[in-house]
Amino acid sequence: MRLPERGLEYPRYTNMKVTEKDVANVADLANLELTADERGVLLRDLNSILEYIDRLNQLDTTHVPPMSEGHAKAAGYTSAGREDILEGLRKSLPHAVALQNAPDSDGTFFKVPKVIER
Amino acid sequence: MDLNALTIDGARSAVQAREITATSLAEAFYSKIEKDDPQIGAYLTLSKERALAQAARMDSLAAKGEPLPPLGGVPVGIKDVMVTHGVRTTAGSKILGNYIPPYDCTAVTRMEDAGAVLLGKLNCDEFAMGSSNENSAWHPVHNPRDLSRVPGGSSGGSAAAVAANMAVATLGSDTGGSIRQPASFCGVVGLMPTYGRVSRYGLIAFASSLDRIGPLTNTVKDGATVLRTIAGRDPMDSTSADVPVPDYVAELEKPVRGLRLGVAREYFGEGLDPEVRKSVEAAIQKLAKLGCEIIPVSLPHTEYAIPTYYIVATAEASSNLARFDGVRYGYRAGDARTLSEMYRRSRDQGFGAEVKRRIMLGTYALSAGYYEAYYLKAQKVRTLLVRDFDEAFKKVDAIVTPTSPTAAFRLGEKVDDPLSMYLADIFTVTADLAGIPGISVPCGNTKENLPVGLQILGKHFDEAMILRVAHAYEQAS
Lengths: 118, 477
Description:
Number of strands of chain A: 0
Order of helices and strands of chain A: HHHH
Oligomer: heterodimer
Distance between the termini of chain A: 28 Å
Largest sheet of chain A: none
Number of helices of chain A: 4
Radius of gyration of chain A: 23 Å
Largest sheet of chain B: 11 strands, mixed
Shape of chain B: globular
Helix content of chain A: 25-40%
Number of helices of chain B: 16
Helix content of chain B: 25-40%
Radius of gyration of chain B: 21 Å
Largest interface: A-B, 70 and 83 residues
Structural class of chain B: alpha/beta
Distance between the termini of chain B: 24 Å
Strand order of the largest sheet of chain B: 1-3-2-4-6-5-10-11-9-7-8
């Protein structure tokens, strides 16, 4: 796994959006552990990218609706639902097939390490 | 007959007429791959058994004198983000290094039902995140036109395989330009259909409101043939549209005289390489000579497309990639004592740097207190981008632009600078965000003999129009 050894010479920010604490919180939310080196690189990259993204605030979007399912509306069709079918469109995978890619299983269940907290 | 240089129709008719067998054709492609791919790196996994079984079926149809289906005996490759039953599918990631899918992607099923011979799975940026193919966890892809350069990304293997005649046609996926930009860098045709045109069942999800599957081919007609094969409603994908699929191949022959083509100045500003500009302007002149009317249009929100994209795409990716946790499939870290440790270490060790960067950015954008400032804001700006196109398409039938601001850059040139890499997609992301179709068709070369791509954008579900314009240009050049 390669991380850039050296990043851009980013300007020093007067008010950094993302702090070291934010990086730790977000890593927690994203189920990532990250090394100290990775955290450092991400702190710099996230600030740089978010600063660039800030240009969206030049636009007044107070009265603009968000695009959601917007493709469908734009194109004049609606992504249709379907009839409820007893077994679904396709039968569920047989047990053995569903478990064939499992890192660990007992033949009936997926096995995981002990759940202590969380 | 140069077996490796055949078009779809050429290959199919040769097998139909029994001038060659589908089996010997597949073997010719495997020999070519064995000889040339060590230098290029387009393939990750070969599916020889499956290919030869399909080739034998086509040969037996031909032997009986029965008509072959439209892709009968045609050797194809599939980007490794589309799952293939029994054939390793990694999405270019270590986290799926040993993943053997238990089912097929609909687009793959439709290709094989139409007679295509599936040679193998093609290299790509990890989870399709990248513009140079350098984010593949396995190995980079080298541009067949100049091995020191990138093939573009994320469908770099799909573009390189077609350019190097290691497949007649391939499937790629496009989220921010991942079909069109590599097509442009490698000198082939790449088509991104309208959002909803092609089922995504079995496509490993990156950003669900953007992801699309489409073909990369050596000719526009081949692209039309593949699209006709894979397009159309699929009950397994509720976002696939129930919109009639025209005969794209028949539509190619309609005249282009009198068509109105828009040229947006926002695509010809600062940052556009002068040689790329020259080639694209010459192509527009050629289209004018063919009788098209060239009309200036404005797409004023273009400059906001990249920041919008990097919010929408990363936010959706952070959610889609939460499924990779080492429980049901994929990589599991061996040293974890608790479930929580197992999740974290499996993801830490399984994902590459760019994937983690995007998961972090997307998670941040969706985290408490930031949703309105980022994701909601980006979705509103997206509406403005759609309105830009709606306005323009009141005046024109299609819009012509450069596909990429530069020709292929050197391997390693941008790997340390994520933002500069993101800007490689500046002319392609707009169509992804707006849901409209786009095609890249080769339009000349730079002085260093690197290909340049002409991008043609169309209205929703009007792939027939952009294919027609691309075909007319290709035939005239």
